[in-house]
Specification:
Helix content is 11%, strand content 50%. With 181 residues, the protein is mainly beta. The chain folds into two domains: 9-94, Roll (SH3 type barrels); 99-180, Roll (SH3 type barrels). It has a ten-stranded antiparallel β-sheet with strand order 4-3-2-1-5-9-8-7-6-10. It is globular, with a radius of gyration of 16 Å. Mean pLDDT is 84; it is low at 1-5.
């Protein structure tokens, strides 16, 4: 049995008509939030969760909450500086496969997400033919340098946004960046 992470990750989840803030101990060892969301288990556990539904400013708090992954439209890992350094070290030590960055806008009703999504080099020059294809993307898609536009026009900017591939209603490729990542 794995030890609980002494530094839990703060996570913000976006649902179709609500938001959930909480801490997770599921992100530990060499796993990232995207790894946890993409694995086969149907739910994701948050501790000290606060749920905000609709436009209500008042939320409801739960000691723990299991959220169905299929209901998560988008997720933001709110890493501390120490967690960012650890992730960077792991990525550098473990290495990563080369990808190409494609700047795109994703229609994720009721949200719009914009940023760089990273596709495998093997996909080639996909350009405007890009879709939320399971052959290209895992269950959740990582978007970097992201902006999530909420209903009412408020923007949330974040270094990393994880988007549920199955809930994407449309993709518009803004530009394809040729550099390898």
């Amino acid at each position: 049995m794995a030890e609980a992470n002494p530094n839990p990750l703060l996570v913000e989840l976006f649902l179709s008509n609500g938001r959930v803030h909480g801490h997770t101990h599921e992100v530990r060892d060499r796993r990232r939030l995207i790894d946890v969301l993409t694995e086969s288990s149907p739910s994701f556990r948050l501790e000290a969760a606060k749920v905000l539904l609709g436009s209500s400013p008042d939320g409801r708090e739960f000691a723990s909450l299991n959220v169905e992954k299929r209901a998560i439209l988008a997720a933001i890992p709110r890493e501390t500086e120490q967690q960012q350094r650890q992730r960077t070290m792991l990525t550098t030590m473990v290495g990563k496969s080369q990808t190409q960055a494609i700047h795109a806008t994703l229609l994720l009703p009721p949200f719009i997400a914009e940023g760089s999504i990273h596709v495998p080099q093997s996909v080639g020059n996909i350009g405007n033919k890009l879709t939320a294809d399971a052959q290209i993307f895992a269950r959740f898609i990582s978007m970097t340098g992201a902006r999530l536009t909420l209903p009412g026009g408020t923007d949330v900017e974040t270094p990393v946004l994880l988007v549920n591939r199955d809930l994407i209603a449309g993709i518009s490729v803004i530009e394809e960046k040729r550099g390898l990542v």
